[in-house]
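forwarding from the other thread:

> can someone predict this with zinc ion?

sure thing
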Amino acid sequence: MKCPACENELTEHKISGVLVNVCRGSCGGLWFHLTQIKKIERLKPGSGATLLNFKLADGVKTYRGAEHPCPQCKTTLLYRHFFSKKHDTEVNQCAKCSGFWVDVGGLVKIMNSPQEERKQLVENYFTAIMDEKIAGMNLGNQDISQAAILIIIIFNFLKPNY
Ligand SMILES: [Zn+2]
Ligand SMILES: [Zn+2]
């Protein structure tokens, strides 16, 4: 499976029984199949935080603003739920297979920052994602609000515990 953002080959990781395809060592994107997100719901928050522990490639180009094809369905284009240039994060979903493409390059960078700064940076990041980005989605639309719930589940899975 290829990364929809940088075309690197994705690596399969199984963590707490959840299969995630990771763009490891390149842009830091994560692919979640819908069936895997259902499993995450039953796990403790932070169970997936170790997925973030790797170095990003220098100068890797992600195709921000361009349309990404679904890594699974190949031809279907992903729908973008939100994007943050400041936090180097975007969340897209496939309309066909309902899988999520979660680009968490900004969070991976935080995990690579000095330990004493990390906790505060993580808090700031999650406040911005939850209170600005997810809250800013069109939650009056039922499909979008359903997607927002799944996105919150994914981010809670990734959030490191301090
Ligand atoms: Zn990538
Ligand atoms: Zn798809």
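The beta strands are 11-15, 18-22, 29-32, 78-84, 89-94, 100-103. thats all i got for now
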